[in-house]
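Complex record, three chains
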Amino acid sequence: MLESLRKSILSEADSEDLRVIVISANGPVFSSGHDLKELTSAQGREHHVQVFNTCSEVMTLIQDIPVPVMAMVNGVATAAGCQLVASCDIVIASEKSTFATPGVNVGLFCSTPAVAIGRTVPRKVALEMLFTGSPISAHDALLHGLVSKVVPENRLEEETLAIAERICWASQPVVALGKATFYSQMAQGRDAAYATASKVMVENLALRDGQEGIRAFIEKREPVWSHTTEKAHD
Amino acid sequence: MLESLRKSILSEADSEDLRVIVISANGPVFSSGHDLKELTSAQGREHHVQVFNTCSEVMTLIQDIPVPVMAMVNGVATAAGCQLVASCDIVIASEKSTFATPGVNVGLFCSTPAVAIGRTVPRKVALEMLFTGSPISAHDALLHGLVSKVVPENRLEEETLAIAERICWASQPVVALGKATFYSQMAQGRDAAYATASKVMVENLALRDGQEGIRAFIEKREPVWSHTTEKAHD
Amino acid sequence: MLESLRKSILSEADSEDLRVIVISANGPVFSSGHDLKELTSAQGREHHVQVFNTCSEVMTLIQDIPVPVMAMVNGVATAAGCQLVASCDIVIASEKSTFATPGVNVGLFCSTPAVAIGRTVPRKVALEMLFTGSPISAHDALLHGLVSKVVPENRLEEETLAIAERICWASQPVVALGKATFYSQMAQGRDAAYATASKVMVENLALRDGQEGIRAFIEKREPVWSHTTEKAHD
């Protein structure tokens, strides 16, 4: 599953037409994380190393590719499944969804999920989830910043697609520049972050789509994006 | 506007009598950020560089001057206006206020606003705002930590001034030491932060106002602040 | 009090049977922080240095020892008492509890409490607490991540013990590895954090209790923990 996700992301990321990725699941479980049968000592240490390296690679890839990645969650997201939720850029969840890091119950503390979850929710919320393994509701996940929006199950797809369509409408290179800059500046101190972001604003303005958007705004018309990284002529 | 704000802050920051700054606006818009007409390619790259450098300077200045800076928001705060909100120490907003980073809609991703907003609200909230440009309500801004308090419009001034007056009542050098220490220790790791803050506590206790406050508390009377950085005599 | 807390934590941390620490108080005050009489200039600068060093040591010790530390709060937690709350891994509070950093009112800004509180609640919430000294309710403390759960006073002990018992049930070395890894990876950048945590997952799987938990799950039975750091045989 992780390999398939990794390959899909990498192959699609090369496509010029890709604007947004939505990760969803069939059935009542969004993702329950690793298959524990793969983690018995019979599989061997090298296999374990590979599983967790691939997992971390997928989770960081989600943030490092140029298009926004959304999760549409309708059910249970646990362990690495909860890590997947925490790693996505935007998460829309149905009211019945729940989120947990129950690894402690099977003697395998959710330390890799904690990397993503600890950077998404307040520390005390993360620690209670990790130490007890108890699930939190969609409402609490929203309260604590683990998901972006909670909607009734029958409106989940509609609400998710509305956001996805808004993203698809925007200029692809502008979104890509914005996403890459967000994650890189957030890893810096405030002053270095402003130096990075100010430089990007000037680059963004030099893009053809940067100038088209501003001209369209001033002329009170819809912009016509080139979706290219071409520089503006004038 | 940015230049004027910068000059006002810098000139006032020299005043011994300054205790707090409250930024507010007339009309239904708190601030809608940059004037897009200044950002066309006709203005030239050097002008763009200067605009964003001045902007970052104002935003960091707000946090680096010795007095608390409050925003009193009664309306729309978008793009660099939302960045201004996120950069203030304390923000009181009326219920009708809304907050957005709609740059993506005009082909100019709100990358500099994201520096302040990404350090203020959970990452998923910031990314949904940035990728969709959709506004969030005052209620959601409070929920996610973008504002400190939300009040009915007819109580906005009263509530803001009550907090401002509390700050004015306190010893100026004690507040200045506290504000500077807060931002400097927050940029450090936990153990370095404790080393910084522990040292400051001892310095604070050596201030005349540090000792006056404690004596007044023990003697159950109101303190009489010197508002100076003089050391205590005894 | 700080010395006594430090000695208790250090002596108990050596005990093999220790699984969780719950800090609580008798009476309507959880903790009101430092005794201001210890902080007059008559006590001398060296004494002040020692007080704040011991305080920082206790607060960091809470996070650095191998067992989870919980606070059960039923009343007022102010200044270093609020810092203690912010430093614990999990905090259960009764509805009537309040939290404040009122040092500014006695001329001693809560700069050391701000180290823990600034890492626990949104920056604007922390700054309003620090600049005004005004208390926040248990409800707002939950909203902003300062506490993990708020319950009616008559259910405080029951709810706290339920979580403590869940922690006691788990494998001690698995919990210890998880806690240590959480705090160490949170101090790193994302990619370094994943390298740390992925390595720990593989170590965790090599533990006897790591394999026992997974086997028990697959065999649909309760795990029997060794609570030792022994490696799995097979």
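Note: The CA atoms of residues 183 and 205 of chain B lie 20 Å apart.
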